[in-house]
Amino acid sequence: MRFVFAVALALWLGPAVALAQARPRQPTFVRVLDAAGQPIAGAEVTFAGGLPHFAASAPSDVLVVVSDARGRATAKLRPDLCYVAWAVVADRKGAAEVGQQRSAVHGYFAAGALLEVPCTQAWAAPRLRVQGFEAWAEHGPLQCVAWTDYPGTAEPLEGSAAAGFVLGRGAAHASTLEVRDRHGRALWATGLGSAEVSLPPPQQVAVRVVDESGAPLQGVPIRQRVWRRQVLRPSGVGGMAEARFAELGVTDADGRCTVVVAYAQDPLQKPGSADLFLFACPPGRAEVAGGVLLRRPLRSDRRVTEVDGRELVFTCPTGEPLRARVQVPAGTRACLQAVATFATDAGSYQHDPRWYEVPVDGDGWFDFAAVPAKLHGAALRLWHPDGSVWAFPFLAGRELPEGMAASVQPWRNPTLTALQVAVVEPDGGPARGA
């Protein structure tokens, strides 16, 4: 579809206020077609909304509707989110097991759009077998969840280890399988595509957390970054991946605890091809990573040749938090999209994207205490409670924007410019939802 763009600029003083969340949901219309352009009745259409440029902590919204006899369906969507949509329909003979058709993922669009979604891809609900459940019996019953990329769905799978798990219509565009323990904690994840996968066995890892002088640190949470949920890119727009964490334990008076992870062999004795990222997160100090990186041990943010095979030591020194003061409305949150570093051989390092989010207090102060001592760089965003955002450029190193970190005077938002964009069809009518 071709669009004609008309752009109008308006200037005013003060912050840009987007009250989209306060506005009611808007009807959005879809028509489901087959390969010949004929309407399909009974198609299940999924609408998934979010902020793809802001995925790490952004809201999400999922609705499922069914097309009528003319292939049409309506969903009421939030006006403050970007949406994608896809459709799945049973075989025209009426028996789902005969075969199904699905559409591609369509997006991004806004509430109020008019869409045509052709179902042209053959698709049958596969049955997935997951080996290795027996070794996790004391943590079970285990759960399997199929995730699409963001924004999308997390679909619990029906079935069992013996009979296999079925990826139903809700998982038609899923990309990742996540296995959880009986408490819902993520244990392991793998990409979907194989008919059979193997859950690694549980491995016990002894952990010790100390300060810069070697003294034990008590009460330090240890958590694992199990996997990263990527962002859907149907129109080339991407964003920050969402880290999926599991809380594993807390250190005792000696700074020690033993955690259980899914890994093919003892990660301290025999680091394998799978990476393993554990984080010590002492309150008021920078977080420190350890585990396995590229078949080598990772200790205190550094890839090393070998470690003591008995325990994984995290050294967490005292450091200065990234702290600043801003003059913003109550309820604003400060978000830091950071690129941390893992030191490797010959003085080089590897990037590791992170995300930190803290509230701005009543006096305008905020601080990021968990940010690592060394950063490749970071970008700050101030998330207004109405949903709008002040976005600052990416800065190299461990820095906040000029005028924030070095001064006790609060940063005041500058005069902003509103950019209003009107999108119209070639005949002059509005291009709804573009």
Key attributes of the depicted protein:
flat; 434 residues; disordered N terminus; mainly beta; 47% strand; single chain; 6-stranded antiparallel beta sheet; 8-stranded mixed beta sheet
Word description of this protein:
Strands 2, 3, 4, 5, 6, 7, 8 and 9 form an eight-stranded mixed sheet that branches. Residues 1-21 and 94-98 have low confidence and may be disordered. This protein has no helices and 35 strands. It is mainly β. β31 and β32 form a beta hairpin. Helix content is 0%, strand content 47%.
What is the distance, rounded to the nearest whole angstrom, between the alpha carbons of the first and last residues?
11 Å
> Major β-sheet, in short?
8 strands, mixed
What oligomeric state do the depicted chains represent?
single chain
Q: Determine the mean pLDDT.
A: 87
Question: Could you tell me the number of beta strands?
Answer: 35
Q: Label the structural class.
A: mainly beta
Rg measurement, Å: 25 Å
In helices, the fraction of residues equals under 10%
From the spread of the alpha carbons, the general shape counts as flat
Strand percentage: over 45%
Q: How would you briefly describe this protein structure?
A:
The chain has 434 residues and is mainly beta. Helix content is 0%, strand content 47%.
Topology:
Elements: E1 4-11, E2 26-33, E3 44-50, E4 61-66, E5 72-77, E6 82-90, E7 100-103, E8 106-109, E9 114-123, E10 127-131, E11 143-147, E12 154-156, E13 158-160, E14 164-166, E15 176-180, E16 186-191, E17 196-198, E18 202-210, E19 221-229, E20 242-250, E21 256-262, E22 276-280, E23 288-293, E24 296-299, E25 302-303, E26 312-315, E27 322-327, E28 333-343, E29 349-359, E30 365-368, E31 375-383, E32 389-391, E33 395-396, E34 411-412, E35 417-424
Parallel strand pairs: 2-9, 10-17, 18-26, 27-34
Antiparallel strand pairs: 1-35, 2-5, 3-4, 3-6, 6-7, 6-8, 7-9, 10-14, 11-12, 11-15, 13-14, 15-16, 18-21, 19-20, 19-22, 22-23, 23-24, 24-25, 27-30, 28-29, 28-31, 31-32, 31-33
